[in-house]
Amino acid sequence: METTIAAISTAMSASGIGIVRISGEDAMNVIAKIYRSKNGRKNIKEVKTHTIHYGYIYDGDETVDEVLVMVMRGPKTYTGEDTVEIDCHGGVYAMKRVLETVLKNGAQVAEPGEFTKRAFLNGRLDLSQAEAVMDVIQAKSEVALKSSVEQLKGSVLRAVKEIRGKLLHHIAYIETALDDPEHFDLDGYPQELLEVAEAQKKKVQKLLKSADDGKMIQEGIRTVILGKPNAGKSSLLNFLVGEDRAIVTEIAGTTRDTLEEYISLHGISLRIIDTAGIRETEDVVEKIGVEKARQMAEKADLILYVVDSSQPLDENDQEIMELLRGRKSIVIYNKTDLASAVDMGSLREKTGSQVIPVSVVEETGIEDLEKSIREMFFQGEISFDDEVYITNARHKTALEEAEKSLEMVTESIEAGMPEDFFSIDLMGAYEALGKILGESLGEDLVNEIFSKFCVGK
Amino acid sequence: MSEKRLEKYCDIVVVGAGHAGCEAALAGARLGFDTVMFTVSVDSIALMPCNPNIGGSSKGHLVREIDALGGEMGKNVDKTFIQSKMLNKSKGPAVHSLRAQADKQAYSNEMRKTLENQENLTIRQGEVTKLLVEEGRITGVQLYSGAVYHCRAVILCTGTYLKARCIYGDVSDYTGPNGLQAANYLTDSLKELGIEIFRFKTGTPARIAGNSIDYSKMEEQFGDERVVPFSFSTDPETVQIPQKSCWLTYTNEKTHEIIRNNLDRSPLYSGTIEGTGPRYCPSIEDKVVRFADKNRHQVFIEPEGLYTNEMYIGGMSSSLPEDVQDAMYHSVPGLEHARIVKNAYAIEYDCINPRQLYPTLEFKNIKGLFSAGQFNGSSGYEEAAAQGLIAGINASMELKGREMLVLDRSEAYIGVLIDDLVTKENREPYRMMTSRAEYRLLLRQDNADLRLRKKGYEAGLIDEETYQKTLEKEKSIQEEIKRTEHTTIGGTPEVQALLEEKKSTLLKSGTTVAELIRRPELTYEDVAPIDKKRPELPWDVKQQVEINLKYEGYIKRQMKQVEQFKKLEAKKIPEDLDYEKVGSLRIEARQKLEAYRPISIGQASRISGVSPADISVLLIYLEQYRRKG
Questions:
Q1: Conformation bin of residue A308: beta by default, left when phi > 0, alpha when psi is -120 to 50
Q2: Taking each helix axis from N to C terminus, what angle separates A189-212 and A387-414, rounded to the nearest 10 degrees?
Q3: A345-393 pLDDT tens trace
């Protein structure tokens, strides 16, 4: 258990202070590498336990964030191990950078529920808490696994699969030749592999870059627009993604059949789910059914409920209002350019949400809408899953591992090592990439050998 | 049970006298137990019913490991081989693999002699039809004749004999391999005991009269000039004998056409065969169908031995009808006028789902009952022998009340083999492959003695003298590595000249002998002239020094991985753990864990369907269990 782990330990929102927590034997070494006090003279490794220190986190020479660092040596810590907590002041982006810096300097991303697991295994939690600990681990893993693959962009998923497929093929070829040297020979093969390894490494590096840019996974507040037919959902969407105020990306999801769009409202990104449904037809609820709408609502961090204020509320509205219960939502009182048939006050009462009058046609009220979304976010009412950043960090680590392995392949080839050494590192790369997809090696290789190569007596 | 019958008492009963049975029986007897080995035919002891060779990629490793532990296979093949080759010599040391063509009859005879001369060992012809079990513990076996042998442990090594059926075309012979009698009753007894049975299939090609083959149309394949013995105890000088050749030819489009035109008459495609066949050992019809783009396949013609002119037609196993086989073989260059002595056939047999076994090869639900070889769903002589040896050792350990021998995946190919069998879902006969060993740089055939002699010694199969020799070898390797690390070499004209001659970069400053050996273009021997104080060392010590220096980086990396691996292996799971009580396990994981009952967290983590989160949950539960006491 002596690996040192790190994760973000508070839910992320743009408002508060986020905490990056490090635990394990190496925690003090990690922080010593990246922390500098204001005058640069404090040695963080020597400070008393359970004390707080002001200073900066550095990635090399670059300041990442202004922080408070809490140093706690084991065993009197949550996990029982040496623990360091970094309070980040610079918001979401800075916190993400702090985590990455910590990971770069010797910590590993914590597995879901790992802090709690360690706490228990190190005797810091009571026996009676065992059941709860097990439940936490299982629940967190489920969420992490789901988010890991779900948040992966379709294009990334495809790229990772493609690289893995290529690597597996070559591993299988080498292994087949080793198992059956009289049927398969490897003359001239290292040169071919060198090209393959280089090409795949470039692809991994490209993915790494997109992970750095935050483009690898889908970040943003998951937003669903609901409303009965002709309430004005698509006009609202079109207006929100209008050129002057939005960054728009369109990705055909391979993991699900929805289209998503990203909107940036003054630095807050909204990820609007199932825009395909909205675009194709105004009659989303009718067309896809209440069941699907419910599923979408369940996935959402925020629901924008569009009401046609010129029409009296009907059973469609009733059903939608049911879905809003217990969720963060904003009611958009649309079509204020027409005569009103719905009372704003009772709408507010029924939904328990803010009601914002808007006329998409006359382009009024949109700024109020933006403002209230921003307020909800900054007040921490809506936040997006911090698992996203953890996932991103995990993916990055995996990609870096794969990159390193592929570099080793190149080195081995160039050093004139025998072929069996190549497949060891190719396998390393294959397995590292598998972590992104949540797939382990299993019988992949044996299956590939048997299905692609004709072996045997 | 009052009627009169033969009744005998012994310690260990071994059922079967194939490669698993021989090792199991020898181990039991050598460890001091009164052992009786049953076989349906004493004349088929250590029979090689398929290919006439021992070893090959990764299988050669197994033979070396068997030898290091005190088994017989390596010694026996050293006495009876007729050609030998070290495969993969141009590749890394981890995948060098010995393979020898054996004289089948001599192999069988030599093994029989060894068994017959073994103290405590009785060979008995007879068919075991029933296992006797009382209160979850094996108490004896019953024979077809009604005779009862009371014993304390039983090792099942029934190979391909249980309800065996040989098939070609629409012909089904209810026999074991090579027309030998099948064992038709034991399966029912196993089922009554609640043992889950699989049905597997394998096959063998035709044997052809050697004097009907036109070798001029084939490529001759020679053995190595300098033969390396399998056994660490064999004097290398004794194996430098005249060798027989093998021959290489190819199938062609005509062969494939004959096969394609007759596929409908294959029992595989018509559905007559129900057993699951191995993908790595496809029949020729399978190859033609699955690899339709290949216009030829290799065919190896291998001698069955010096006692016969029969040749084994490697690469062309088949279950097509006799007339199709005739035409098919005749289409191959060199075999135009071939006379078939024995036709190719597929064989189906009963075996078990090996997840019913602990890694000790003991049945989880019947104490004292062990099994090994094809009965456990493996394939291959070497795989069988390896399991037989472990089962024999462990049956003995149990009777002695000592801890059983479990080799883990970082210690031996045997460990990989057994762990795969008892931990993974096996739906076809399992063959060893180097790619299955994740720590293969450590599990080399050249260091099997260094890895395993100690285990063999502790079990009692390796004598003191042999063990001491291994310890000495280990010591001299360490000393020589240290010496090379500390011997500095300066850029003298002599050194530079040697480097220049070997096309190696000249020295700019001083270095060590070890550093020079690490250069890919230099060997341990190459630098001898400039390594003035080098001691006289045996070749096998020099070999270890060179490998350890040259591949140090890789070896160290794997050793690090092994450290991690060992941690989870060391976390044992109590035998009586009730998985129902581990609340947070996912249902799939719980069912799997209940079915496999892994002995360690490490083993549990390798079961498919058990996630890392399940493993964490299990760790928490075990801690809770431990604290409760």
A1: beta
A2: 160
A3: 888 888 888 899 988 888 888 888 888 887 776 666 665 555 666 777 8
User: Which of B205, B315, B435 comes nearest A179 by C-beta?
Assistant: B435
Cβ neighbours of residue B368 under 8 Å, at least 6 residues apart?
Answer: B137, B138, B152, B153, B154, B362, B395, B398
State the Cα–Cα distance between residues A271 and A284, nearest whole angstrom.
18
Residues 6+ apart with CB under 8 A from A156: A207, A210, A216, A217
Q: How big is chain B, counted in residues?
A: 629
d(CA B469, CA B454): 11
Q: What is the least distance, in Å, from the CA of B564 to any CA of chain A? A: 9
Angle at B9 between CA B3 and CA B10, to 5 degrees: 150
Q: Mean pLDDT over all residues of chain A? A: 81
Q: Quick one: DSSP state of residue B182?
A: P
The ipTM of this complex is 0.91
Nearest-angstrom CA–CA distance, B118 and B16:
17
Instruction: Give the phi and the psi of residue A412 in degrees, each rounded to 5.
Output: -60, -40
Cβ–Cβ below 8 Å for A419 and B91: yes
- Give the separation between CA B155 and CA A269, rounded to whole angstroms: 67
Closest alpha carbon within chain A to B627: A127
Measured between alpha carbons, how far is A396 from A104 in angstroms, rounded to an integer? Answer: 10
The C-alpha R_g of chain A, in whole angstroms, comes to 26
Residues in chain B predicted with pLDDT less than 50, given as ranges, are none
Strands laid side by side in the B153-156 sheet: B121-125, B35-39, B12-15, B153-156, B369-371
Determine how many CB atoms are found less than 10 A away from the CB of residue B561.
15
**A117/B619 touch (CB, cutoff 8 Å), yes or no:** yes
Model-wide pTM > 0.95:
no
